[in-house]
Amino acid sequence: MDTTGKTITCRAAIAWKEKSPLSIEEVQVEPPKPGEVRVKMASSGICGSDNHVLKGDLSMKFPLIPGHEGAGTVESVGDGVSSVKPGDKVLTLIIPQCRECDACLHSQGNFCDKQDVLPCSGVMLDGTSRFSCRGRKVYHSFRTSTFTEYTVVPEIAVVKIDDAAPMDKVCLLSCGVPTGYGAAVNSAKVTPGSTCVVFGLGGVGSAIVMGCKASGASRIIGVDINEQKFPRARALGVTDCLNPDKLKKSVHEVVMEMTGVGADFAFEAIGNVDTMVSAWNSCNNSYGVCLIIGLAPADTQLTLEAAKIVSGKTLKGVCLGDYKTRDCIPQLVTDYLQDKINIDPLVTHQLPFKQLHKALELYHSGKTRHLTDSRYTAKGKEPEKASFFFLVQILGKMLQQQDADEKMHLSIEVDSILIMSSHFSSSLLCLGSSILSSTGLMLDGTSRFTCRGKKIYHLYGTSTFTEYTVVDEIAVAKIDDATPMDKVCVTSCEVLTGFGAVFNTAQVTPGSTCVFFGLGGISSAIVMGCKASGASRIIRVDINEQKFPRARALGITDCLNPNRLKKSVDEVVMKMTGIGVDFAFEAIGLIETMVEALKSWNVSYGVYVIMGEAPSGSQFSFDPMVLLPGRTLKSSVMGGFKPEMKSLN
User: Fold this and answer.
1) Which of 23, 129, 135, 580 falls 20 to 30 Å from 496 in CA-CA distance?
2) Which of 433, 463, 490 corresponds to the end of one domain?
3) What is the CATH number of the domain that holds 137?
4) Which residues belong to any copy of the Alcohol dehydrogenase-like N-terminal domain (predicted)?
């Protein structure tokens, strides 16, 4: 019977209210309106996001039909639909791709403006629903709703796949597999020979493992409290399995002991802020990358020790593996059909629709992955705070070379000292009073300074406020003899830090928009770097307006004094740009400005670089959901330069 243009009555699972059991009901599914597609569902996974919906962790409208990870066949299409036709095999997409919005058009964005995840309206793009039950409107879940025999989705949230795709399995390629696999191969770009740690070995975590192995990682550490998952994890590529409940130390301490230096890449696929912190602390302090994939419950805060953020690590949110969904998901299906990706091990149970409740029971027991892309809430031990090492290049005139206890040191004559001004001088990276805990000694454990018979300690292994100093050879670099010694000292720290934050850390692109908090020496170097990189708009934030003329001369296009604004800085920046900035820089070291900068960046692809060193003991807390759409938080030490780099000669 031809159902085109008619309302279809079928079975669907309805959550009448949050935290209530699903009820299998007869529902009415209206025909698709213009730009919409009605799909006859063949299979669906139970994703962790669906579990958050049912638990009430996300702000949703009820009653609703859950589900988003689905595979089916197009039953009919609305006017104007051209990318699919009746009979096509398709996957539903929780993140659509309209190919028109800023995120879709940007090379690094995939969090389409027409998504219905953050926030979730529960209705189609025209503001209405296609579902009803017993005369009552039923809401959509993420504009997909796959726990039903028929669903209606926007054309931009569905994609045609190969006719040879097995519809009983391929639904996993709608969300869970690209989210995990893509986090490794596309978002993190895991490198051959690297060490990875994966928190959570459910469906997404297992896909992460597959991606790490495919990328050539030499060691993959899996963390989970359910040891029944360990054999399968090892079969997928995990080399070491850790159960936090059986460890005498915190996970990150154990990972540090196992690796010696920390993991190159850490992935959090649970959605628990404790394990997010543990993943962050498990990363290498200088170049580690921590990726947050797990969806955290609403109103939770990720808290990091602010003074120890500035180490060179990266914290990145991942949404669907950063894939542009309609462009990339079909290729993943093709890769599966060509045996380049094997999702078969991720399928543990296949149950008919009428046994959905049993599928949910298996999901919560951690024993299933299809009709479940299994994720769970794990217990994380209280992580200890991370530490890092700060490398300072010192410039001066070499006088003599000494050999002490097989360690080479250099004596330096300081011809002049130049301190660049800053209103927040006590919080600057170079001038802060609590940069890092230091021994105050040379590498051999002794000092080279005395005064009136009393030992004097070194500061950061340099101590330049003296006519003569002694530093380790590894903390000094020879420069060109023609260098003006009355000025070049700023290149040893502030210029490297600011310029490098632009070129090395953020990699500012031509035509981009940048915002800076602070107008001191480091920030001035950042401004020059952004201008040299071709940024089209550079917004500066400072409470000292006397700095504004110099700032404009350096390349600033807009100056903001927070004390003169009627709204918060981030609100003003959002209004000025419409979509948030491409790059945000914080060079002050105040928690308040760190938070303001955090809120100023683009939701889908913004990059936020922290250089300001916060006071010891302060906490930087934020909603981890701000990372989910694909934002990246980076810290920068010395602009990412190695002392012998010649980029600024």
Assistant:
1) 580
2) 490
3) 3.90.180.10
4) 33-163
Looking at per-residue pLDDT, the higher value among 284 and 649 belongs to 284
For the record, the structure tokens of 227 come out as: 């040891």
pLDDT per residue as tens digits for the range 398-412:
333 333 333 333 333
Q: Which of 50, 98, 100, 99 is nearest to 70 (CA)?
A: 50
pTM summary value = 0.85
Q: Cite the active site residues.
A: 47, 49, 52, 68, 175
Say if residue 322 is in the same domain as residue 411: no
Helical pair 251-259 and 273-282, crossing angle rounded to 10 deg: 20
Structure tokens at 551: 């700032």
Q: Is 646 exposed, middle or buried (0-12, 13-18, 19+ CB in 10 A)?
A: exposed
Q: Which run of H or of E encompasses 642?
A: none
Map tokens 């039903």 to a residue: 148
Q: Is 208 exposed, middle or buried (0-12, 13-18, 19+ CB in 10 A)?
A: buried
* Lookup: tokens for 106: 């940007």
Residue 341, helix vs strand vs coil: coil
User: Is residue 168, in this structure, part of any structural domain at all?
Assistant: no
Query: Tens digits of per-residue pLDDT, 205-241?
Result: 999 999 999 999 999 999 999 999 999 999 999 999 9
Same domain, 621 and 634: yes
Task: Verify that 197 and 143 share a domain, yes or no.
Answer: no
Tokens of 116: 């219905």
Is residue 480 located within the same domain as residue 362?
no
pLDDT digits (tens, 9 = 90+) for 110-155: 999 999 998 899 999 999 999 999 999 999 999 999 999 999 999 9
Q: Measure the CA–CA gap between 630 and 626, rounded to whole angstroms.
A: 9
Residues 480 and 612 occupy one common structural domain: no
Contact between residue 120 and residue 60 where contact means Cβ atoms under 8 Å apart: yes
Q: How far apart are the C-alpha atoms of 217 and 255, rounded to whole Å?
A: 16
Model confidence pLDDT, tens digit, residues 511-541: 999 999 976 778 888 999 999 999 999 999 9
151 and 183 housed in the same domain: no
Which amino acid, residue 579?
A: I
431 and 529 inside one domain: no
**In a domain? residue 555:** yes
167: in domain = no
Per the structure, the count of domains in the chain is: 4
Alpha helices in 154-243 (DSSP H): 176-182, 203-214, 230-236
CA distance 101 to 56: 30
DSSP state of 506: I
Shared-domain flag, residues 320 and 404: no
Q: Report yes or no: 147 and 356 within 8 Å, Cβ to Cβ.
A: yes
- Which run of H or E residues covers position 576? helix 569-577
Stretch (H or E) spanning 572? helix 569-577
Range of the domain at 370: 175-385
Per-residue model confidence (pLDDT) at position 423? 30
What is the distance, to the nearest Å, from the Cα of residue 607 to the centroid of all Cα atoms in its chain?
A: 10
Whether 401 and 471 have beta carbons less than 8 Å apart is answered as no
